[in-house]
Amino acid sequence: MACSSCSTGKDGQPRGCKNNGTCGTDGCNKLTVFDWLSNMSLPNGQKPFDCVEVRFKNSRKEFYRNTENLTLSIGDVVATQSKSGHDVGVVTLTGELVRIQMKRKKVALDDKTIPKIYRKATQRDIDIWQKCRDREEEIKKRSREIAISLKLEMKLSDVEFQGDGSKATFYYTAEDRVDFRQLIKDMAKAFGIRIEMRQIGYRQEAQRLGGIGSCGRELCCSTWLTDFRSVSTASARYQQLALNPQKLAGQCGKLKCCLNYELDMYLEALKDFPPSDCKLKTQKGLAFCQKADIFKETLWFSYKDEPATWHTLSKDQVLEILERNKKGDKVASLEEYAADNIAEEKTTFENVVGQDSLTRFDRPKNKKRRKKKRRKPKPKASSNAK
To answer: Shortest CA distance to 140 belongs to which of 208, 56, 202, 55?
Structure first.
């Protein structure tokens, strides 16, 4: 799904709207909601819900009350109430789905502090809004230079202008508390606007900046992920992943959000699975678990005196041995159980067509010496002088 500006260029390359998810038709935004109730009419005597959902730059969404009873639809640009002046945003949801979203986000339906919508944005409002958006990159670069000159340990990641251009919100990340009072004075003097500083986390920073992950695809947080759940190293342990910080960390420096995607499936499979630190008592000696495959339900054990020799056991066999150990009975050896798990290797590929080997060029060529044929000597002409 894309907006009308995202068509291809003359050379066939995708042109893109270059609006970073804020196109006017609201088709390139990851937070776009499909209104599946749009074709359904309300019961007789029921009024439409008077709140709408409005989206601003990046992932910021807020609810507004339609006190003027304006006829609004998804994609309309509206002027909304703010603390001072007005802001400009795009309507993303109307009707009864807004009521569901407000309940989901625990916003009271009868809250009187909900701001209201002034009007549909005029062309003058849109021109001022677009002009402010065009200034954001230049101001972000200049503000970073001011922060570096003041030797502040912070990183300014994004700037968001208010719709009327009277205020700008600067988003930054920092590990410690930062005293940016002098920074605000310098930026207000340089840009002639009111400044608001807002600290965000490293995950929110990666969401705003975007990028390509180690999987080769765009970051989940910048394409479709909207909520950030806590990720712990236990998620990697349950999935038997190597605890390598360089591989487990994303571009934000935190553990990857995708570690939670398959965690529920692993936890379900581990419910009746033997623990990885279990020990099997045999007459031949004590055996330790070396490796486990959860989905194949296979474990590999080795004796204490022979750590290099592994024996393959199934999950049911291990549970049976553990049950016998609890009763004080020792099995004879692991080899008796491992012998039942030896399966013949099946050939997965047969060269039926007769192709040459892929390593045929790696083999040294035998130099065949050409045997020179010996020419027979010509018979000498007999000279009989008469």
So the answer is: 208
211 and 255 fall within a common domain: yes
pLDDT digits (tens, 9 = 90+) for 125-147: 999 999 999 999 999 999 999 99
Q: Provide DSSP, 104-152.
A: HTT--TT-TT--BEEEEPPHHHHHHHHHHHHHHHHHHHHHHHHHHHTT-
pLDDT digits (tens, 9 = 90+) for 65-121: 998 888 888 889 999 999 888 999 999 889 888 999 999 888 998 888 899 999 999
* Reported pTM: 0.68
CA distance 74 to 61: 14
Instruction: Name residue, tokens 């486990």.
Output: 292
d(CA 63, CA 223): 22
Please state the domain count of the chain: 5
Distance (Å, rounded) from C-alpha 275 to C-alpha 298?
12
Q: Do 156 and 186 lie in a common domain?
A: yes
Is 88 in contact with 36 (CB distance < 8 Å)?
no
